[in-house]
Amino acid sequence: MNTTEHILIVFGVLFVLLNIAAGLIWVERRLLALWQDRLGPNRAGPLGIFIVLADTLKLFFKEDWVPPFADKWVFITAPAIVVASVLMSFVIIPFAPGIVVADLNIGIIFFLAMSSLGVYSIVLGGWASNNKYALLGALRGASQMIAYEVFMGLSLMGVVMLSGSFNLGEIVAAQKNLWFVVTQPVGFVVFLIAGIAETHRLPFDIPEAESELIAGYHAEYSGMKFGMFFIGEYLGVTLISAMIVTLFFGGWLGPAFLPPLVWFVIKLFFFIGLFILLRASLPRPRYDQLISYGWKILLPLVLLNVLVTGAIALYLRG
Amino acid sequence: MLSHLRTMWLVFLHLFHKKETIEYPEEKAPLHPRYRGRIVLTTDPDGGERCVGCYLCAVACPVDCIALQATEDEEGRRYPEFFRINFSRCIFCGYCEDACPTYAIQLIPDFEMAEYNRQNLVFEKEDLLINSQGKYPGYNFYRVAGLEAGVKKKGEGVNEEPPVDVHSLLP
User: Fold this and answer.
1) Which residue range forms the structural domain that includes residue B89?
2) The domain that contains B111 carries what CATH number?
3) C-alpha distances out from residue A111 to A16, A157, A236, A260, B79, Å
4) Dihedral (Cα; B99, B103, B105, B106), 10-degree rounding
5) Pick from B8, B18, B19: which is nearest to A281 by CB?
6) H or E stretch at B96
């Protein structure tokens, strides 16, 4: 791959991702509305798609305010971290054969590292806001992240064992005959749950739980700083969906009548829709329920999954 | 866990349900005949105004948005010299309609009276007066009761008996 092509891929991926993240504002509002028997924003532009433009402009023209009691520089840095760390994770995702920013041979580990970095934005944002609700949100975010990071990584070990590689391109290639969702159903379900918790989407949005903590860690944020958290969340949804597609649903693989990239995008949007459906249908669990659910049920389950997968893999090999 | 999946499925099915949204400017919500909207002054079947300037509506109004000045015509019949409703204050409670003894002031099912200029929400008598009898067609106050004002003689009103000639009662 020559340099020009590579730069094109980098900027192309960046451009498309930011547009998807912004476009999800509209997708989510329309879908939520349809599932609540409403129509949602349908006035500005065809099917109301320009609501994205209106929302973005609105965020830009909001007063960009740093509270006098806040820790200024940390307060400003925190929203950038979430976007940066999520965008970094996209580096390893193979969108189609050849369309990948960095074909790392430690892909999954890089993803886990970057998604763990994302929690810093919550903790720092909540801490720097110097507001008790923001701090409580940050506290919850941190413990939720610690609890769910553990088996998020472990749930992927089954896939790694079966494919024998941390490289996402090779993992996709290993699903040529059978998607890993068939051989690793437990891993898939646990990764999905951990992924929802990772992106703090409903029903696991307890760091920002608006009915309990106003807006949690971003209670003090306004303008484009809040917009960064907002975009970061949608990027996170896209990232987890892309990871699910890559790891369990055969990535770009699909019948030949459509190009690989199109298959990837179709699967991606299916899972983004699933995320929005989860938000539309499920209530938020209590905080202690979430944590005990994670440690007491999901962790043993995923350990068992690793054990059984390992045993079967060993048995099949010889 | 199964109930969660069932919930998600049932919510998903709402995609195909009929939507509750009424797309307002194109499609209007049905308003009931007794909806309390814009206030009008109605006229009687002969085309005269019903309002007799009794001030009861102005007194009943909880937000004091009605102002009027009564005066008399050459037949001694009262009518409002001016009648002013400040709709930026009006809360559309309908007390004025209840208080009105002549069915003159009525609330009609129309709420589309937004203005860019607040001053335009002050409606004068010519804005309020409509050429209609409103909810009480055929009703003419002066034919039922009231001063003799060139409409009917005493005892000729609807359901009215002729006045007793007191002189005939003498022993």
Assistant:
1) 29-144
2) 3.30.70.3270
3) 19, 13, 12, 22, 83
4) 100
5) B8
6) helix B95-99
Give residue A10's identity as a one-letter amino acid code: V
B 18-47: CB under 8 A from A: 18-21, 23
pLDDT at B66 over 80: yes
pLDDT of residue B145: 66
Task: Please write the tens of the pLDDT for every residue from A209-226.
Answer: 777 777 777 778 888 888
Q: Would residue B106 count as lying in a domain?
A: yes
- Asked if the interface predicted TM-score (ipTM) of this complex is over 0.85, the answer is no
Alpha helices in chain A (DSSP H): 3-35, 51-61, 72-89, 107-129, 132-163, 168-173, 180-183, 185-198, 210-213, 223-248, 260-281, 287-292, 299-317
Indicate the number of domains in chain A: 1
* Selection from A47, A299, A69 nearest residue A197 by Cα: A299
- Provide the 10 A C-beta neighbour count for residue A106: 13
Take residue A96 and report the two structure tokens written for it. Answer: 């189609």
In a domain, A33, yes or no: no
- The answer, yes or no, to whether residue B130 has pLDDT greater than 70, is yes
Does some domain include residue B76?
Answer: yes
Domain of residue A224 covers: 65-317
CB-nearest to B8 from A37, A39, A278 is A278
- Tell which of A30, A31, A32, A36 to mutate to test the B interface (max B CBs under 10 Å): A36
- Is the residue at B150 inside a domain? no
Q: Can you give the pLDDT at residue B133?
A: 87
Structural domain total, chain B = 1
In A, what residues contact B, Cβ < 8 A? 34-39, 42, 277-278, 280-282
Tell me the percentage of chain B whose pLDDT exceeds 90: 24
Low-confidence ranges of chain A (pLDDT < 50): none
Do the domain assignments include residue B19? no
Band (pLDDT 50/70/90 cuts) for residue B60 is very high
